Amino acid sequence: MKKNVLITGGTGFVGKYLTAELLKKGYSVSILTRNSRPDTDGVSYYIWDVSRQQMEEAAILNTDYIIHLAGENIADKKWTSKRKEEIRDSRIDSAKLIYSVLKKNNKQVEAFVSASGIGYYGAMKGEGICTENTLPADDFIGKVCQEWEKSADLMAGLGIRTVKIRTGMVLGREGGVVKKLAPIFKRGLGSALGSGKQYMPWIHVHDLCRMYIEAIENKNMSGAFNATINDSTTNLSFVKALASCLGRPLWLPNIPSLFIRIGLGEMADIVLTGRRVSSDKIKKLGFRFQFKGLKKALKDCLKTTLAVSNQ
After folding, report:
1. How far is CA 212 from the centre of its chain?
2. To 5 degrees, how large is the angle CA 192–CA 75–CA 150?
3. Less Cβ around it within 10 Å: N or C end of the chain?
4. What is residue 127's predicted lDDT score, i.e. its pLDDT?
5. Residues in CB range of 166: below 8 A, 6 or more apart
């Protein structure tokens, strides 16, 4: 009988890729969604309402693994007080709902894998390299990531192996930063942001999905793992590579930090600051990234199309 993986946030950018990869590997997939959808070959949909702390409990009772991706996009809207609350609650309250259903039904799953972010380490500058043991930050995103991971640790309290994937910038064709920037750069209007020296740790979505699958299959994985390529990519080197892959010049001056802060407010920190992040911990378990070069990853994102007939 096929093992089942329950995904929250399964209809999003990463979730669609992950669903496709899990199906290829012979898993069945369940997806928690806010709106009713018809089941498709290998994929079942269940309704949940995080704000009311309600869900179709069969989603939990019939699964072997849970991958928790749900969370509002931190860069979609300006960080008003209301938006900050949405960003936080969408991650933490959703995990608490899963925990309550697991506990109520005395349900054991083989692993609970939660998304997290390298924002855990904060809006840093300088050459220091963050490892999983680096202390968390006390800025907004740092605090959200800490609470996010604490909510995941509730599952560990139930005796469930728990893994937290601290993810950098995700590259892929069907969403994320490449989809947003490619049309601008194709018109020759791309430029670096601020000093351009801020680090931008990244990962190709294919490698990220492989890491999630490794997390459910490898019983030696527990705790936090960084999901980035540590190649010292800066904002300037990233935009140069993207322009080169698109065959377009990079001729415009950097956009001044002041303009970005006026436009984005506090959210500007996520594009004007960065940090180097080590992925040695996951490598020591034998995981190997398939996309280690930035240009190779960008070319793949720009040339390939994801075909997921069931999404």
Report:
1. 10
2. 125
3. N
4. 67
5. 116, 117, 118, 120, 132, 145, 224, 225, 226, 227, 277
- Judged by phi (left if over 0) then psi (alpha if -120 to 50, else beta), residue 50 lies in alpha
Residue with tokens 């190997």: 288
Length of the chain: 311
The list of the chain residues with pLDDT below 70 reads 124-127, 304-311
One CATH from 3.10.310.10, 3.40.50.1010, 3.40.50.720, 3.90.550.10 for 4-303: 3.40.50.720
What's the predicted TM-score (pTM) here? 0.94
Give pLDDT, residue 304. 53
Q: What would the two tokens of residue 8 be? A: 């929250």
154, 125, 151, 155: which is closest to 137 by C-alpha? 125
Q: What is the pLDDT of residues 30-83, one digit of tens each?
A: 999 998 889 898 999 999 999 999 999 999 999 999 999 999 988 888 899 999
Closest CA to 63 of 121, 107, 128: 107
- The span from the CA of 37 to the CA of 289, in Å, is 34
For residue 78, what are its two tokens?
């300006």
E-state strands within 213-298: 223-227, 276-277
Helix (H) / strand (E) element for 31: namely strand 28-33
